[in-house]
Amino acid sequence: MASFSPPKHCEIALFSMVLISMLVVDATSFQFKVGGKKGWTKPTGNESETYNEWAAMNRFHVRDSLYFKYKNDSVLVVNRTSYKNCSVSDPIFKFEDGDTVFQCDRYGFFYFISGEPGHCRAGQRLIVRVIVQSAISSPQPAPSPGEGGSDDGGDGWDDSFSRPPPPWNSSIKLTVASCFMTVLGGMVVIMYLLM
Q1: pTM, whole model, 2 decimals?
Q2: What is the pLDDT of residues 141-169, one digit of tens each?
Q3: What is the DSSP string of 143-187?
Q4: How many CB atoms lie within 10 A of CB 9?
Q5: What interhelical angle do 8-26 and 170-194 show, nearest 10?
């Protein structure tokens, strides 16, 4: 009885597709540039949005990173209390290189402030909420800016977090890449079985 063995090039193609799908799904993190073109600078009062308003319009996931570009300044990663009090005395991390990339290595909250005197109180501070990657779901519409009414403590960030974050971010790329690679993998398996 003859046994069926697929041609060698089919085995190589199948192995390559599986390897590529693992690499594509793993590499779908996103780098956010804090402050846009201006970078990490002390607010002048003429900005169209605060750092926290910018953060509220994005979704951050584990493995995403924040890029801070600055001159004559620093970036401090602090706890919630130090953030609220603009305390620079005991940071978790301190960066002074002017070109900092901070990777979000867990879900939860990250608090950033400037290490320069007066900058934090002027608004150069940021809260980033890293969310847990959930299963594929339809995105929720973003709330209008006037909704709510809870006390934000003057920092532009709602402490209740009763609203979901807006839908557009790196998770959309991850979902699309995962679906694409699943379909592609299924087609390769079907082709393999038909040969």
Answers
A1: 0.59
A2: 666 555 444 455 555 554 444 444 444 44
A3: PPTT------TTTT--SS--SPPPS-SHHHHHHHHHHHHHHHHHH
A4: 8
A5: 170
